[in-house]
From TrEMBL:
Top-level taxon in the UniProt lineage: Bacteria
Matches recorded under SUPFAM superfamilies: NAD(P)-binding Rossmann-fold domains
Keywords: Oxidoreductase
EC number(s) per entry: 1.1.1.-
InterPro entries registered for this protein in UniProt: KR_dom (IPR057326), NAD(P)-bd_dom_sf (IPR036291), Sc_DH/Rdtase_CS (IPR020904), SDR_fam (IPR002347)
Top EC category: oxidoreductase
Annotated protein name in UniProt: SDR family NAD(P)-dependent oxidoreductase
Entry keyword Oxidoreductase: yes
Taxonomic source organism: Streptomyces kebangsaanensis
GO molecular function, one term: oxidoreductase activity
Alphabetical list of PANTHER family matching this protein: 3-OXOACYL-[ACYL-CARRIER-PROTEIN] REDUCTASE, CHLOROPLASTIC, SHORT-CHAIN DEHYDROGENASES/REDUCTASES FAMILY MEMBER
Domain Ketoreductase per the UniProt entry, residue ranges: 3-205
A Pfam family of this chain: adh_short_C2
PROSITE patterns xrefs: ADH_SHORT
Length: 246
C-alpha cells in the first residue's frame, strides 16, 4: 500500500536520494525546501513539492496546512534539511564573539530547530500504528566538527528523538536517527573539500570508500519498513566504520 512520505531538504543530496528510493517503492512523496528552483529540478516521479523555510514558524504552519489539504496522514517523516552553514548568507562581523554567536545560532537554526518545528507541527498527523520519524544526525555528533557548532546542533537531536520515541511509542510510531560520515555528491562541503582532505576522510573508514547519498537513503528506507517495526530510539551509524577510528 502506498504511503505518504514527507522529506525536508528533499531537493538535493541525501534528501533527494531518499525521495527517489521511496518513490521507486510506490510511495507518495512530498519534497520540502527553501529554494523553489531546486525543488523544481528534482526528478522524483509523482512527487509533490512545497517551498518553505522550516526553521520559521510561519513557514512550518504553511507546510502543516498543505499536508492537511493534500495528504492527510503522514506515514514517514524524514528530516534532511540542514548543513554546516556554508550556504547561509555571509554576515560581516568585526567582533570575534559576534562571529561565534552567529555560527552557533545558524547551526542550531538549520539543523535542530528545523527538525523540531516540523515534527511538532506534523506530530498529530503521523499514521498510527506504523508511523515513522527519521532524523539525520552526523558522525560529527560523536567526534566534533572543528568549531563545535555543527556537531552540537546534530547531537541535540539525540535526546529530542529519544524523548519523542517514548512519547510516540504507545501510538505504534517509531523514531530513529541515522548518523552519516563523509558522504560525497552533496552540497554539504561547498568549496571546502580538497584532494588531501577527501583522502584523509576516506582513509578513516574501514571500507576504503566515501559514503553516497544512496547508502543513507537505503538505511532510511529500511528503518521505515515493516522489518524495522521494533526498532526505535536508535542511532544507526552509516560511515564505513569511521566513527570507530583506526
Amino acid at each position: 500500500m502506498s504511503r505518504n512520505v514527507v522529506i525536508s531538504g528533499g531537493g538535493t543530496g541525501i534528501g533527494l536520494a531518499a525521495a527517489r528510493a521511496f518513490a521507486d517503492g510506490g510511495d507518495r512523496v512530498l519534497l520540502l525546501g527553501r529554494r523553489e528552483e531546486v525543488l523544481r529540478r528534482a526528478q522524483v516521479p509523482g512527487a509533490l513539492t512545497y517551498t518553505a523555510d522550516v526553521s520559521d514558524v510561519a513557514g512550518v504552519r504553511g507546510v502543516a496546512r498543505f499536508v492537511a489539504d493534500e495528504l492527510g496522514a503522514v506515514d514517514v517523516l524524514i528530516h534532511s534539511a540542514g548543513g554546516s552553514g556554508r550556504l547561509e548568507p555571509r554576515v560581516e562581523r568585526e567582533d570575534p564573539l559576534d562571529l561565534v554567536a552567529d555560527n552557533w545560532l545558524v547551526n542550531f537554526r538549520i539543523n535542530t530547530l528545523t527538525a523540531v518545528l516540523l515534527t511538532e507541527a506534523l506530530k498529530d498527523r503521523l499514521a498510527e500504528p506504523g508511523g515513522r520519524v527519521l532524523f539525520l544526525s552526523s558522525i560529527a555528533a560523536y567526534r566534533g566538527s572543528g568549531s563545535g557548532a555543527y556537531a552540537a546542533s546534530k547531537a541535540a537531536l539525540h535526546p529530542y528523538a529519544h524523548d519523542l520515541a517514548r512519547q510516540l511509542g504507545p501510538r505504534g510510531i517509531t523514531v530513529n536517527l541515522v548518523a552519516p560520515g563523509y558522504v560525497e555528491d552533496t552540497d554539504f562541503f561547498g568549496d571546502g573539500m580538497d584532494d588531501a582532505r577527501r583522502a584523509r576522510l576516506i582513509a578513516e573508514t574501514s571500507t576504503g570508500r566515501p559514503g553516497t547519498p544512496g547508502d543513507i537513503a537505503a538505511t532510511l528506507h529500511w528503518l521505515a519498513s515493516p522489518s524495522a517495526a521494533h526498532i526505535t530510539s536508535q542511532i544507526i551509524q552509516v560511515n564505513g566504520g569511521a566513527e570507530r577510528g583506526h
